[in-house]
Request: fold
Amino acid sequence: AQRVTQPEKLLSVFKGAPVELKCNYSYSGSPELFWYVQYSRQRLQLLLRHISRESIKGFTADLNKGETSFHLKKPFAQEEDSAMYYCARLILTGGGNKLTFGTGTQLKVEL
Amino acid sequence: ETGVTQSPTHLIKTRGQQVTLRCSSQSGHNTVSWYQQALGQGPQFIFQYYREEENGRGNFPPRFSGLQFPNYSSELNVNALELDDSALYLCASSWDGTDYGYTFGSGTRLTVV
Reply:
């Protein structure tokens, strides 16, 4: 089965400190990977996708095929970054596609 | 442009009953996917509908079924509810099933007692 693993349920950092949210995937071909974020009382929303190589809200994520990882990083955490973060992989099935999510990491940025 | 709308927001049902959850897709989107999110877990794929046809299914029993209508809105039906069906049910829409930019609804919180 193609899995996405987020080893940390909770990550607590101080404001201004670097953030790294870990994500590993089971190897299979060329993965399509994403980070989704859910702020308190808001819906799940796309943060970034690896094919875009973009930086959103200061976050970046690099695909490392050798380590099968897609860690989410930000150099300086802000209070508004506190949220639930999900790593997800797009799986192409015979009839369509689906997102496989990790269990999520709760990021708490403390003052 | 409207987003994805789900109804109802909360629902309490008794074990053995049936439930229907509804989803209106984002304007311009023709593909709808349903996910189940149990407490403390990531969303789990239930199935996807594309142009009114089921287009992929996750590891859920047949008592989970769905429909997509010509206006691309969708329903998720669950028969013979079990206590473990208690979860947040999320609907996500996209264009043509290949647009990786899924737009999620706020979800329906189902509690089975």
Q: What stands out?
A: The two ends of chain B are 38 Å apart (CA to CA). Residues 64 and 78 of chain B are 5 Å apart (CA to CA).
